[in-house]
Amino acid sequence: MYNFTYHNPTKIVFGKGTIAELKNLLSNDLKILLTYGGGSIKKNGVYDQVMTALKEHKVIEYGGIEPNPQYRTCMQAVRIVKNENIDFILSVGGGSVLDASKFIAAAALWRGDEPWDFVRKSLPLEAALPLGCVLTLPATGSESNPNAVISREETGEKLAFIDKHVFPQFAILDPETTYTLPERQVANGVVDTFVHVIEQYLTFPVNAPLQDRLAESILLTLVEEGPKALQNPLDYDTRATLMWAATLALNTLLSRGVPTDWTTHQIGHELTALHGIDHARTLAIFLPAVLKHQKKAKFKKLAQYGRRVWGLAQDDENQVVDQAIAKTIEFFKSLHVPVCLADVNLTPADVRQISASHQQRGSTLGEHGTIGPDEIAEIILLAA
After folding, report:
1. Architecture of domain 183-382
2. What is this structure's pTM?
3. 3-class SS letters over the chain
4. pLDDT tens across 60-71, in order?
């Protein structure tokens, strides 16, 4: 196991009726920017619960944040923050709203020329406005980590930034807020969570058995509970389990002391930027292709994954590895998500720009840094 530092400052408030705790989490003298998406929180009762809890506070609303939050949308909010002297940002919604809120919190105090610079150039932040969230869509894990992903349509980019200053101060997780989610979003959340775990687990062994078992426990839970959420949307225990799994999958705990590989995410982000395909669906399309392409480099962990998560018992490890990948595809299909480019009516030629973009940036991917533009092109062909 590698050396590591672990610190997670986010306070998790979990369970039924916990939105009311906002009044105890935020002092009355704060001027709050309330951020949200397309308005579903006003239909499912979440907005009313939030406003009731904040009735003693000065609240300014900013809605309309996209599923893949756009730079221009965020910058409009930054102007509001500065003009209104906002003290605190409260994100109410899913991971996209929270990612946008993290960018807004950082950009409002950015002293450089253009806030996009700290995203594109991975520049460190000196400060950010404090923020918290009421989560309504478990998927990204953004409620308890320092990560965010922002898109910029005019440049065709979808990029992540990571900085300790944008850890949420608190996250309220009430599983009942997820009851009205469309089936597509529930399935997407399960896939996103699953791949978050995979990319911190399916690399190479470093004698970190506890980290492996933590990862495997979440994967097994998702395999068991994910389909249940589609079959019975009002099952509180299933919803609660999936919500907590999504948080644990990317709260920085699983990645401590082990190598990680975010190839699937980095290629998937580009597919979203090019064709607007749901983030989780890009992961389901590219993960099997990445695993096939990287079979040799990931062989030992793939075999372990096959035996421990999928219960495969063949003596031939090659068969175990191949079946593990097949089982992964089968699981994604059970959630009714696409598993190849053809499923979303695309061909490798339609997405060849992904490889070109990495060539232009000179970036390499993978836990060994061996996946360059040529390898990305090969992965795209395998995802056909």
Report:
1. Up-down Bundle (1.20)
2. 0.95
3. CCCCCCCCCCEEEECCCHHHHHHHHCCCCCEEEEECCCCHHHCCCHHHHHHHHCCCCEEEEECCCCCCCEHHHHHHHHHHHHHHCCCEEEEEECHHHHHHHHHHHHHCCCCCCCCHHHHHCCCCCCCCCCEEEEECCCCCCHHHCCEEEEEEHHHCEEEEEECHHHCCCEEEECHHHHCCCCHHHHHHHHHHHHHHHHHHHCCCCCCCHHHHHHHHHHHHHHHHHHHHHHHCCCCHHHHHHHHHHHHHHCCCCCCCCCCCCCHHHHHHHHHHHHHCCCHHHHHHHHHHHHHHHCCCCCHHHHHHHHHHCCCCCCCCHHHHHHHHHHHHHHHHHHCCCCCCHHHHCCCHHHHCHHHHHHHHHCCCECCCCCECHHHHHHHHHHCC
4. 999 999 999 999
